[in-house]
Design a protein that fits this description.
heterodimer, A: nine-stranded mixed beta sheet, about 15% strand, B: mainly alpha, two-stranded antiparallel ribbon, 7 helices
């Protein structure tokens, strides 16, 4: 029966694929006659009918028409990699934070800048006022062929190049002219080029963002469902003047506003659930009673990493350094082929379909930054802390990915450290696997002292879970939380029916009920024994 | 032996619907409270809430009936002869003595019984009603500026539920103390009391 079913499914698949291909053919045939949705066909622009040797050349061509684009980009976090949190006063952004993945972009720019929307960000002397160094293509490529390989400071490679030099490995050059002539709106894939691969690989960092969202089905993401709503990232992260709303540095934890309406001026974050769904989205009134305390994501994202792509849950740098028999860094993979140990990185724990942790969150995030005192006796050290509580009137219960790490720090200066990982020089850890050299180089890059001593400290980072929204029939059922030992068991300061009430009243109540029951039973027994007939 | 028609059709209907609703609300209520798993939280909540509205509807009818028929006088409390009733249940019942109270159409309940029903009606039920409605409309209350802790509301509601449970146990047991164990139950179904 099962075999029959499989054959049937296979036949059906072939049939569907066949018709899909013929549909594509018809489309291509008719595309000359059909009008573009856009009012401009970039392949007809003279500025783009030439060959381009570098990214900045393309940008200069773009700017001849899109005169303000670069200066708009200059205002963004995507460009600055810096964000001053007005609430906490902390200077954040990729150029400043230290995390428990690869710890820091500082001293690793050549590799990390492949996710910068610019060209040539390789050290702190980068000219952030440069217009031609804005990378238009990384977001607006519609061909999927644009690449910014690691090691080139964010530049694409236009001619076949041996990299690393002397390695015999060739990075293929790409045709910027063809790509420039086909620019379009951002797509899931363009945003995903960086955001799906954060932390050094697919699905590694966020847990709710990975390449399974390139073409998700409904079960994975009810909004992005490629066969259904087919949202792009920008459908929610509705962007004006290149300012993309929604940031994990200063998230909107609580949105008390109604749904945004066309024509009505609305300056609040358009990327929240409420910005479309309002405050009372459920047909059952009691469910709407939850929206004042419980973030939508808590019930509607029952698990993250649901797209068959495991996310990293922990990373132990302290075990790095092992080599195999040939003297190469040891690599261990699990049954699914995913790396669980790498000599240059240490041990990883990977998980799929992860149930989030839950906590109060008011949108304020405090970071542990370079120079902040690290007291090892108080590990795990919070890389960042979601602030908030039940009584501040600003907090909601949020799902969170807790990412645990064990990373190097300086036990003498009691500070987290910048580790120089990537690069072809003698100090890069991924080259020579020597912590002292790597940290000395890393700290020198940011102008901070290093004692020469290396120790490892446990750390934990918080990541808000907000993507991979499941269809409503997959949302959490009531008893996931309304139960003893349920998902919200550890969330304090709120009464949750079913989680446990007043213990004294419960004890007295059951005791009294049992006493009364015993009393009437004894009474009845005496009646039975003493009955006259 | 004589037969007296004690309970009218409406009273019997009222009693048994109320019985089903109260037992149902106790069962589902303690499940919502987290005491055990039976229907699952969502289903228990749905049944509990629907029962409440049915109960309130029934209550409106019952009040109307009591006020228009004057039957509310049945529940006027009295201490007269209550000592005899207490003595009967403590001692006499074991000796096969006859019940000191004979129900009539005018006075259906013995003084102890009437007082208990009154207590349930004016103390336990309002406690459950008020805390239950506050529980159900907690968000609206908060929005209106009444800052009551949900845990407190739930605790009061739970206390009411335990009182109701205590009443229910006693009530069912005392139902077996007629001249035969099933006599009172029969009367509650047929309306006829033949304990004369």
């Amino acid at each position: 029966m099962q075999a029959l079913k499989q054959i049937w499914v296979a036949l059906a698949t072939v049939a569907v694929m066949g018709s899909a291909f013929s549909a594509v053919d018809q489309k291509t045939g008719a595309s000359d006659a059909a009008l573009l949705r856009s009012t401009a066909d970039h392949s007809k622009f003279k500025e783009l009918q030439r060959s381009f040797q570098s990214g900045p050349e393309v940008t200069k061509a773009c700017l001849t028409c899109h005169t303000e684009a670069a200066r708009q980009i200059h205002q963004t976090q995507h460009w600055k990699w810096e964000y001053v949190n007005p609430g906490t006063g902390q200077t954040l952004g990729k150029r400043h934070v230290i995390n428990n993945f690869c710890t820091s972009v500082s001293s690793n720019y050549k590799a990390c800048a492949s996710c910068h929307i610019g060209y040539g960000l390789d050290d702190k002397n980068f000219d952030f006022a440069s217009e031609q160094n804005v990378d238009c293509l990384v977001c607006h490529d519609s061909t999927g062929k644009y690449k910014k390989p690691s090691g080139f400071s964010g530049h694409p490679v236009t001619k076949d190049t041996e990299f690393p030099p002397g390695s015999g490995k060739i990075v293929r050059g790409i045709d910027l002219q063809a790509i420039a002539q086909k620019v379009g709106k951002t797509r899931r894939e363009t945003c995903g080029t960086c955001h799906f691969y954060g932390g050094g690989g697919d699905a590694v960092k966020h847990g709710d963002l990975d390449s399974s969202l390139d073409r998700p089905d409904k079960a994975l993401d009810v909004h992005m469902d490629a066969e259904g709503n087919n949202f792009t990232c920008a459908t929610c992260h509705k962007t004006e003047g290149h300012q993309v709303p929604g940031s994990r540095y200063a998230p909107t934890a609580m949105d008390k506003g109604g749904a945004h309406i066309r024509g009505k001026a609305d300056s609040t974050n358009p990327a929240t659930c409420q910005a479309c769904h309002g405050q009372a989205p459920h047909s059952m009134a009691k469910l709407n009673d939850h929206t004042d305390k419980v973030a939508c994501q808590t019930c509607h994202i029952p698990a993250f990493a649901r797209g068959d792509m495991p996310t990293k849950m922990s990373w132990d740098w302290s075990t790095a350094g092992k080599r195999d028999a040939k003297g190469k860094p040891l690599v261990v993979t699990n049954d699914d082929g995913h790396v669980t140990y790498n000599g240059i990185k240490g041990d990883f724990v990977l998980e799929e379909n992860v149930r989030p942790e839950y906590m109060w969150f008011n949108g304020s995030v405090k970071y542990t930054l370079m120079g902040d005192d690290i007291d090892k006796s108080r590990q795990p050290i919070a890389i960042n802390t979601f602030e908030g509580g039940p009584d501040d009137g600003k907090s909601m219960i949020w799902p969170v990915k807790l990412f645990r790490g064990k990373q190097p720090f300086d036990p003498v200066h009691r500070t987290l450290v910048v580790t120089h990982l990537a690069g072809e020089d003698d100090t890069a850890y991924w080259k020579n696997m020597d912590w002292e050299k790597a940290i000395a180089a890393g700290m020198a890059a940011v102008g901070k002292p290093f004692s020469g001593k290396v120790d490892f400290v446990e750390t934990v980072a918080m990541w808000p879970i907000t993507h991979m929204v499941a269809p409503k029939d997959k949302a959490l059922a009531c008893n996931e939380c309304h139960a003893r030992g349920g998902r919200l068991d550890k969330v304090e300061g709120i009464y949750i029916p079913g989680r446990g009430g007043n213990r004294l009243i419960d004890m007295l109540g059951w005791l009294a009920s049992a006493a009364i029951l015993a009393g009437v039973l004894v009474h009845g027994l005496i009646r039975f024994v003493k009955r006259k007939h | 032996m004589g037969r007296v028609y004690i309970f009218t059709r409406f009273e019997r209907l009222w009693h048994w619907i109320q019985a089903v609703l109260i037992i149902g609300m106790l069962l589902t209520g303690f499940e919502i409270h987290g005491s055990y798993h039976l229907l699952g939280f969502e289903q228990a909540h749905r049944v509990h809430t629907l029962s409440v509205w049915a109960f309130i509807g029934l209550w409106v009818f019952a009040m109307f009936w009591h006020l228009t028929t004057g039957e509310w006088r049945q529940y006027i409390p009295t201490m007269k002869n209550i000592d005899k009733i207490v003595r009967f249940y403590a001692v006499g019942i074991f000796k096969g003595e006859p019940h000191p109270f004979k129900p009539t159409r005018e006075r259906k309940h013995n003084p102890m019984q009437a007082q208990t029903y009154l207590g349930v009606t004016v103390v336990v039920t309002p406690l459950l009603w008020l805390s239950g409605l506050a529980y159900l409309f907690y968000n609206e209350l908060t929005a209106a500026g009444y800052r009551i802790d949900l845990g407190t509301i739930a605790t009061v509601h739970t206390m009411g539920a335990f009182l109701m449970l205590a009443f229910l146990i006693g009530h069912i047991y005392l139902g077996t103390t007629g001249h035969t164990p099933l006599a009172h139950f029969r009367a509650m179904f047929t309306g006829w009391d033949d304990d004369h």
